[in-house]
């Protein structure tokens, strides 16, 4: 049974999410404040974490950093009333994989959860045994490790998925719509700049400290990974 941590200080919301997830076959732990959430997150292994932002003692941003320090791969979904772009960007920068604004439809939350867990399960079951190499960039698809010039690069789950997808289509220009469909796997508001933000995250980690740039943009068409 897949185990999910829900950190939410609104008791009715937390209990409703817990009930809905349990009815769909998940094992759920709930923390009603950031201190308890931190304790659970650091002492247990979860398949996915759902975080509110405005929490007593430790807010969702702080918890996301703690979780990322412990496990750089577990999917983190922010569930919050804060819908501003700055709030979203800060969450993504700290390692959140998804962001759902209250009030929300539980069916959408469940769909997003299943996307992340399905991908994780598929990776575990069908994990490839080979590596992708582009110039001095190496992606180990079994271990989900990325190195460049022999230096290990820490990526969030979503950053890794985006990089891997581009690497699997080396040299091919991939549109924003295709990235949204294949990497996010759900209906995605392409009017936002989240994909651009993630590409910037990757560029800072993959290209910034190297003379040869591997991540490229074809204006008006999309992105591609190439040694050019």
TrEMBL record:
> Mind listing the UniProt keywords for this protein, alphabetically?
DNA-binding, Phosphoprotein, Transcription, Transcription regulation, Two-component regulatory system
Which BP terms from GO are recorded?
A: regulation of DNA-templated transcription
Under which name does UniProt file this protein? DNA-binding response regulator, OmpR family, contains REC and winged-helix (WHTH) domain
Which CDD domains does this entry report, sorted A to Z?
A: REC_OmpR_CusR-like, trans_reg_C
* InterPro entries noted in UniProt: CheY-like_superfamily, OmpR/PhoB-type_DNA-bd, Sig_transdc_resp-reg_receiver, WalR-like, WH-like_DNA-bd_sf
**What Gene Ontology cellular component terms go with this record?**
cytosol; protein-DNA complex
Per the record, DNA-binding region residues lie at 129-227
The record's annotation in Pfam families points to:
Response_reg, Trans_reg_C
Q: Name one GO molecular function term.
A: phosphorelay response regulator activity
Ranges for domain Response regulatory come to 3-117
Q: Provide the positions where the record notes the PTM 4-aspartylphosphate.
A: 52
**What's the domain of life for this entry?**
Bacteria
Native species of this protein? Chitinophaga arvensicola
Q: Where is the OmpR/PhoB-type domain?
A: 129-227
